[in-house]
Structure formats: structure tokens, C-alpha cells
Please model this.
Amino acid sequence: MTAVRISPRSSARQGSKSLRTALVTGVLGQDGAYLAKTLLDEGYRVIGGIRRTSSVNPWRLEELGIRDHVDLVPLDLLEQSNVQRTIGRIRPDLLFNLAAQSFVGTAFEEPVYTTMVDGVAVLYLLEAIRSHAPETRFYQASTSEMFGKAVVVPQTEDTPFHPRSPYGVAKVYGHWITVNYREAHGLHASSGLLFNHESPLRGIDFVTRKITHGLARIRCGLQDRLELGNLEARRDWGHAADYVRAMYAMTQRPAGSTYVVATGADHSVRDFLALALQASDIEVRWEGEGRDERCLDAATGRPLVTINPRFYRPAEVDRLVGDSSRAKRDLGWQPTIGFPALVEEMVRADYDRVRRSVDA
Ligand code: NAP
Ligand code: G4F
Model:
């Protein structure tokens, strides 16, 4: 891992007055990296908020070739005093709140922490903007998980929320407090109801990347098999590079608002796995049923994928499929990368990475 330059006092608004400034919390995550790239392409100075750890890992920024173009500042969302000081000092033109405990499975194990980071901390940010930078345009990373046990398919901006996890519940608070600060204090504050979006930069615990990374390791002889949970779970999966464009577009509207961002098509985990196996040139046959179902290597009969109930959720969401008509109309947004291309890109990227590490 390379050494990381953290700027305790960003030069934004000091060195170059003409550059507009964007502050991105959670910049080291999947969306943070793609958004930082989009903002740099749009001509912004990008300041990325990170939480302190003993070993900061900017691998996603490095993969996109932008590591040296993003100023990193310490910004743990739970340290309210620092949130106040940092926003007061930078007074960014745009503030994107992407930081979160974003793994739904973990939210069942760490509900209090998840609530603080994903819910209460949104209020810390909004209060800091209200006090120190009321001209700052704010984006809150809301989620389709808020629809949860949705009564309407597809879901729109008007569909009622029924979250099914502490993560979804906390995000509902983050969403409504954003709407409230827009309505009560006149802030330019938007909330993006984004459905699942993936990429080669996706965290390894999420099912798509778990599959593509696991298959790459199996192909390279580093792992025997992959254990998954509910293969019938369905999601509306898009590509993160497409979705960050919608985030940026929301901040460019005359006023803040709420938008659904989705592809409009859903697929099962089984569908994703089937395409990933195909793209990996692995022929398989299936045997058994339910939790005893197994996917075997067609040539050797060796089990490649088995079911482990540990990966089932205590409560699943029902059918999440988004209707992005409003984003298409107001933001001119639409997805450009389809489901098969997404799977192929992730399979290829993971195989190349694992192959390189084996060859090194
Ligand atoms: P991600 O890869 O998990 O990134 C989240 C980032 O937040 C990480 O860099 C993490 O830091 C940081 N973070 C966690 N706790 C923090 C804290 N207390 N203070 C400061 N930073 C903290 O998530 P993502 O997929 O990019 O998603 C971005 C946002 O969109 C999240 O808010 C997520 O809930 C939301 N969202 C995602 C999707 C999706 O499908 N990807 C869909 C809808 C909404 P470390 O790097 O140190 O771990
Ligand atoms: O990939 P997942 O963990 O993503 P999930 O729960 O949909 O959450 C992601 O998308 C949300 C948007 O709706 C974001 F807000 C959130 O931050 C995150 O980015 O799981 C997808 C589905 C689930 O139904 C799960 O039960 O895959 C199923 N699944 C089956 N086997 C598995 C596994 N999920 C994981 N993580 N690991 C498995 O082995």
C-alpha cells in the first residue's frame, strides 16, 4: 500500500479561488471513487473525507488513476466537532454525503453504530451547513433499502417506505432530515434513492463482488468453493459509474429534490451467478434443492457453490425495482451499462487482479 498524503488544511479556496470545491465523505468507498473522478472531470477541486485508521487504503482512487488529485482530510462523521470545523473551514460548493456503514448484514449485528453513522450523522452535516455554509449544495446517499417490504412495484419517489433492516431505518431518518432541512431552512439539499449499483470497485462482502472475486480465486486455484445465501433474492442492479452522474446532476438543479435512480429491471442472485460462471468459462450442473442445492463443476463433479444459511438475512426485502422516470426527465439521466456488461466487467477485473497477484 502506498503512503497517503492527508491535508490537515486543504488548500481549497486558498491557492486557487476560481476552482469550485466539492467535499465527498466516504471518498475511499466505491461511489466515492467514481464520484471523485466525475467531479475532477467537471473541473472541481475534490476534497475527500476519511475516517482515521492505522492504515488508510486508497486502492480505489489508485485504480481510477486519481489518487494524487484528491485531497484527503480526516472527517469521521461521528466526531461532530470536527464535522463542524471542517465544513466551516472548507465551505464547499458541493457536499456529497456518501460515508456510511453500508453493509446491510452488519447492520443487524451493529444496529446502534449503523444508526449513528447512517442516520444521526446526517444531521451533524446539515447543522454544520446551516451554521457555517448555507450556500453549500448537499447530496444525501439514500437507498432503495428504505422501500424494503414495498407494496408497489416499481418504486417511485412517492412509494411509502417500509425498511427491513436497521440500515434501512437509519437511512429513512437521513432522508427525512435532509428533506426537512430543505423545507425548513431553505438548503439546497437532495436525496438520491439509489438502487443497488456495483462495479469492479465494489466491497468484497456484497454478493456481486463476492461472486466475481470468489470465482477468480477458484479459477486461479486459491479457493475451493464459494458459499452463498439466498440465491432467489432479486435486485435492480446498475453500474456505479452511471449512478454517480445522477448524484452530480441533482446538485446542478435550481433546487434540491428527491430522485429514484435505478435501471428498472431486476435479476436474481442466481442470474448474476449464472452469467458470472459463463463469463468465467466454467461449465456447471446443479443438484439438490433449497438449502441443500449445490453447483458442481461439470467436468470434475467438484462442488463449486454451496448454500450457507449464515448468509441469509433475518428479514429480506421484497421486490425492489426502481422507476427513474423523474430522474430521466429532470436530470436527463439514464443508465448506459447493462446487466450482462456489468457482470462481464466485474469478472474480468477480478480475474486480472487475482492472476496478477499469483504471478507476482
Ligand atoms: P462503501 O463502499 O461501503 O463506502 C462507504 C464509505 O464510508 C467507506 O469509505 C467508509 O470508510 C466510509 N465510512 C464508514 N463509516 C464512516 C464514518 N464513521 N466516518 C467517515 N466515513 C465512514 O459504500 P458505497 O457502495 O460506496 O455507497 C456509498 C453510499 O451510498 C453509502 O452511504 C451507501 O449506504 C449508499 N448506497 C449505496 C448503494 C450501492 O448499491 N452501492 C445503494 C444505495 C445507497 P472506510 O473506507 O474507512 O471503510
Ligand atoms: O449485495 P448485498 O449484500 O446488497 P444489499 O443488501 O442489497 O445492499 C446494498 O444495496 C443497497 C441498495 O438497496 C444499499 F443501500 C446497501 O448499502 C448495499 O450497497 O445483498 C444483495 C442480496 C441480498 O438479498 C442477500 O440476501 O444478495 C443476497 N445474498 C445471497 N447470498 C447475499 C449472499 N448477500 C451477501 N452479501 N452475501 C451472500 O453470500
